[in-house]
Amino acid sequence: MLFDESTLRKLNQLTLVASRIRSGAIKGERRSSKRGSSVEFADYRDYTPGDDLRRLDWNIYARLERPFIKLLEEEEDLAVHILLDGSKSMDWPAPPGLETENGLHKFRYALRMAAGLGAVALASGDSLSVGFLQNERVAAEFGPTRGGAALPRLFRFLESLEPGGETNLDAALKAYSTIPRRAGLLVLISDLFDAGQDNILLHLRRKHEAALLHILSPDELDPPLAGDLQLLDTETGYAQDVSLDSGLRALYRERAQAWLQSIQASCRKHAIRYLDITTSRPWEQVILLEMRKAGVVK
Q1: Least confident of 50-59, 62-71, 151-160
Q2: At what angle do helices 169-177 and 197-205 cross, to 10 degrees?
Q3: Residue 38 banded pLDDT, cuts 50, 70, 90
Q4: For the segment 84-119, what is each residue's pLDDT rounded down to a tens digit?
Q5: Largest CA distance in the chain
Q6: Arithmetic mean of pLDDT, 246-270
């Protein structure tokens, strides 16, 4: 179980926020930026898997032999896309599920964040899709689906995932975007250990309103190491001998902070909401408090 009933009740009081995207398919739990009665017709859009068949216009289908969904004014749902980085670098530092003084296992932490945000989306009547990004592809997908009844299936899907392989978020995001999907709120959960940072951010904001949850272990920002060491890349297996003293550690910390600041600046430039998160912080507090401050939930 990724979290308990008490946490779920708190999450069910939240709603995901998308201030610019308004392309709803059916009546949801949120208010639209449009005016008018919720039973008044507004527009049509193409049917996508997961849409409520009761919203199909069968007269249009009979004439054009193409399925269209009727949109109503005032109330609408939101398409929520949660993308989870499944690369080997997320498999750090403790065995999955074990707490250490440096926080929770990074991938396990990411799973709980995805489950928590998914629970918020399902409770709000939003359309939820989850993509598991691994190597250069979308290795597994969940949804699109709606409604709180889908939460156990979401948990089973997330629990089945295992990190592995090299990071290539740029290619994986391209693969996710090749399939036509409803515009909405896209949330990437990743440690962002990928050289193509700018391309990744551009992919995030293409068509969607985007948020980046940047998850790192505390010892990745300040490694508790010293002396003569051999460092091993978890994804490629490449080994590097180093002599680590206090001066080199200070330089590492300085460059790590500069890297975080550069990502934050790029997100501001591209209008992407950004949260830098360490696994020593309780994940539910990040959603309930910090994401509310950042305007990702309300």
Answers
A1: 50-59
A2: 20
A3: very low
A4: 999 999 998 766 555 554 457 899 999 999 999 999
A5: 75
A6: 90
Cα–chain center distance at 17: 13
How far is Cα 61 from Cα 108, in angstroms, rounded to an integer? 45
Q: What gap in Å lies between CA 296 and CA 298, rounded to an integer? A: 7
36: left (phi over 0), alpha (psi -120 to 50) or beta: left
Which domains are seen in the chain, by residue range? 5-15+78-221+268-293 (3.40.50.410), 30-76 (no CATH)
Q: Is the pLDDT of residue 261 over 50?
A: yes
- Residue 77 has which token pair? 């749902």
What are the φ and ψ backbone dihedral angles of 32, each rounded to 5 degrees?
-85, 165
Give Cα 67 to chain centroid, integer Å.
30
CA dihedral 204, 215, 131, 139 (to 10 degrees): 110
Average pLDDT over residues 137-158: 93
The total number of residues shown for the chain amounts to: 298
The structure tokens listed for 159 are: 């629990």
Residue 75 clears pLDDT 80, i.e. is over it: no
